[in-house]
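WARN  no MSA supplied for this record, continuing single-sequence
INFO  ligand: zinc ion
INFO  echoing inputs
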Amino acid sequence: MDRKIRVLIAKPGLDGHDRGALVIAQALRDHGMEVIYTGLRQSPGQIAQAAIQEDVDVIGLSSLSGAHRTLFPKVISALKEQNAEDIPVIGGGVIPYEDIPYLEEQGIQKVFTPGTPTEVIAQYIKQLVDPSASDVTEPPEKIAHIGIAVKNIDDVMSFYHDLLGLKLKGFEEVPSEGVKVAFFEIGETSIELLEPLNEESPIHKYIEKRGEGIHHIALEVKDIEDRLKHYKDQDVPLIHETPKDGAHNSKIAFLHPKAANGVLYELCEHKEE
Ligand code: ZN
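INFO  complex generated
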């Protein structure tokens, strides 16, 4: 899009602090957006009015007072009353995670918490305004598979195949990871048994250190390269900064377990099912 993205930053309600809102406003300006700030203590009606007059693409609401559960939905209602419900509204501030599903049900597109990097908010807004832009802020689509480290696949086949009765989709050797993999279909995801092919295999080292068991969770994503770059920009620790070849004609990359408090996540993009 040629026109700059226009954002209205508004603070409904009575709280008197706007440091956070000003930080966001500046961060969005740094991303090339035009930001209009309404100032403190605006009523939902005033906010809707300002959004229409300023012809903004998105409204960002900030609340620190704890009144977000009533005030944010009132802004949505005010927009509806003025036939402007097509302007998307996002929210942030001091908002407990427990309140997020309620606010999203009430029509807030997305709620950000104080820990959200401004980079993520800017990317989200770009995506919201222009869905053809890279969609790296979209959540992963599903759990692609759960990887389980075993010393020997044959030794555990009877549990997965005979006892659970899971459908065996096949075997594959992945030389880049030094593993032999058995795939079992379960719903829309799968369980992958990983057996080390040699002592250099990360799976061999994992079993030596921690024993057999759950090794990683793989998340199905689109645009794996853009996503890795996006995560890297946010200082997410990565094992692979660029994707490599995985099983089933996929591109894969691992995040460092430090990124998720000790859980190893793999990103996985399948070119074809
Ligand atoms: Zn995997």
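The longest helix spans residues 68-81.
INFO  checksum written, moving to next record
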